[in-house]
Amino acid sequence: MNTKRTLRWLLYATSVVLFLASLFCFLWIFSSYSMAFTECSETYGLFAIKPRCRQPAIASILSAVFLALSIVLPILGHRRLR
Questions:
Q1: Is 30 left (phi over 0), alpha (psi -120 to 50) or beta?
Q2: Which of 46, 73, 41 is nearest to 60 (CA)?
Q3: Does residue 1 sit in helix, strand or coil?
Q4: Stretch 57-67: mean pLDDT, rounded?
Q5: What is the pLDDT confidence band of residue 77, given thresholds at 50, 70 and 90?
Q6: Cα angle vertex 20, ends 28, 74, to 5°?
Q7: Which of 12, 24, 26 is nearest to 74 (CA)?
Q8: What number of other Cβ atoms are within 10 A of residue 35's Cβ?
Q9: Are the C-beta atoms of residues 44 and 33 closer than 8 Å to each other?
Q10: What's the whole-model pTM score?
Q11: Which of 50, 55, 63, 74 has the fewest C-beta atoms under 10 angstroms from its C-beta?
Q12: What does the DSSP assignment read for 31-72?
């Protein structure tokens, strides 16, 4: 019983950390977009030649993944560790 409660709170804490990482990546999108605006000629992509032009795409993917994980982990923790 105590182990389940500890695991559940650990999943909740991990979810909060992942949500904060998602917010950080969301801010990274805007930061990298503005830094690469002139260098990339307003074109960004995951497979761009210049590394600076890839950063907005990478940040948006990471933000989406971290946000999805921060939503799924507490749901799984609540359902499976009752």
A1: alpha
A2: 46
A3: coil
A4: 95
A5: confident
A6: 135
A7: 12
A8: 13
A9: yes
A10: 0.85
A11: 50
A12: HHHHHTTTTTTT---TT-SSHHHHHHHHHHHHHHHHHHHHHH
- What CA–CA distance (Å, rounded) separates 2 from 65? 30
What's at 79, amino acid-wise?
R
CA distance 53 to 2: 49
Tokens of 80: 């499976």
Q: Which residue has the higher pLDDT, 18 or 36?
A: 18
Tokens of 78: 């609540």
- Give residue-wise pLDDT tens across range 23-59: 999 999 999 888 888 888 878 888 888 888 899 999 9
Rounded Cα distance between 80 and 8, Å, is 9
